[in-house]
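agent> step 3/5: call structure_predict on target 'Zinc/iron permease' (Hymenobacter cyanobacteriorum).
agent> reason: downstream docking stage needs a structural representation; sequence fetched in step 2, passing through unchanged.
tool.input:
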Amino acid sequence: MGFAIFLLLLTVLGAGAAAAWVPVARGGQWLKPLLAFSGAYLFTLTVTHILPEALQLLPEHPTRVGYWVLAGFFGQLLLEVLSQGIEHGHVHHEHGHSPEAPGRVPFLLLGALILHSFLEGSVLVHTPEAGDISRNFYAIVVGVALHHMPAAFALATLLRLRLGSFRRVWVGLLIFALASPVGIIVSNYVVLSQLLSSGWYAALLGLVAGNFLHVSTTILFETSPEHRLNWPKLAATLAGLLLALAVA
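tool.output (status=ok):
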């Protein structure tokens, strides 16, 4: 579990640091294949692992899982109103701010992103108490880490444009980096027994599955808005699909 927390911290801080020296225009070139890869990986993982696992935990009431999936899917729509789509690598330029007149920290945006990241970490359980539920732990960790890389790059870029100094970016970036590990710690060491015994873990899986379905499908649609065959994006998508199937 320590390795998983380290990986999540490293990917967020590393991708955020890259925003200090990679121009936004150049960053977009490598972000699109990475987004296509992570979107295909997350979508496949959700359909083949997370949803079946949630349904197995509530075999008598499968429709309840469906309701939580819907809540996660449409709840993500509301979160993106606040986060401005940073979860899937959107960088919005703010022309009203400059290094000479820095703006305020976008607390609502940062809060929405932190909540999104915390929920992702909360489904990552890997203790003896969890039993077979933890068998997909590292597969989902990789998916979350891949998903956080473009999000961290976009967040660091936006905060730098908004605050006028990259040194002021690190606090927000570090808080975002810690959100998923905190979710892991809370689920595994604080409330796991209550979640498993009450059926709330199945609801949490459904909620995050809906969240992942929204994010991954948005990514896949946005990486090919012109609906034309793009070989690099197609290769990245197939690679993400095959990797998620391989970890099964």
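agent> step 4/5: record observation. The CA atoms of residues 73 and 179 lie 20 Å apart.
agent> proceeding.
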